[in-house]
Each structure stands twice: as C-alpha cells, then as structure tokens.
Amino acid sequence: MIRLLIVVAIVIVILFVLRSRATSERGISKNFYRNLIFITIVCAIIFFLATSGRLILPQLLNLIKIGLPFLTKFIGI
C-alpha cells in the first residue's frame, strides 16, 4: 500500500511539472493537467478507501458509538 502511495505521489509530481511547462502552442492547456491531477487524486482516495474500508469504516463507527454518550451529556447540561 505504501508503494502505491509513492507511485501516486510521483505521478502527481510529474503532472505538476507538465502543467507548469504547458503552453497553449502545444494544444494541451493547463486546465487539462489540473483536471487530470484532480482525477488522479480522487481515484487514489477512492482506491485507498475501497481497499482498506474494512479497517477504516468500523473504526469510524466505533468512534461514533463511543462519542454519542458524551455528546448527549453535553446536550443535557
């Protein structure tokens, strides 16, 4: 999983470099690279959540379960 994160970071850095060198003469605008960077980040986040969802989601639910009694105490005061 760490290797995949490193690869995604390298791809994003490469896209930033290409975006900074982009000119309108080539036909590929900076907006294209911006959209490509955004899509890459969103896909990476979705992939990480999908592959580690069995670890992340139950812990979030457990935090909510623990936090609700404290929240109701503060509302009741």
Tell me roughly what share of residues is in helical segments: over 70%
Give the quaternary arrangement of the chains: single chain
Structural class: mainly alpha
Compute the number of helices.
3
| Chain-averaged pLDDT | 79
User: Which consecutive residue ranges, at least 5 long each, have pLDDT under 50?
Assistant: none
Strand and helix order: HHH
Instruction: Sum up the overall morphology in one term.
Output: elongated
Percent strand:
under 5%
What is the β-strand count?
A: 0
Describe the protein.
This protein is elongated. α1 (2-21) packs antiparallel against α2. It has helices at 2-21, 30-51, 53-76. The protein is an all-alpha fold and 77 residues long. It contains 3 helices and no strands.
Provide a concise account of the structure shown.
The chain is mostly helical. Helices cover 86% and strands 0% of the residues.
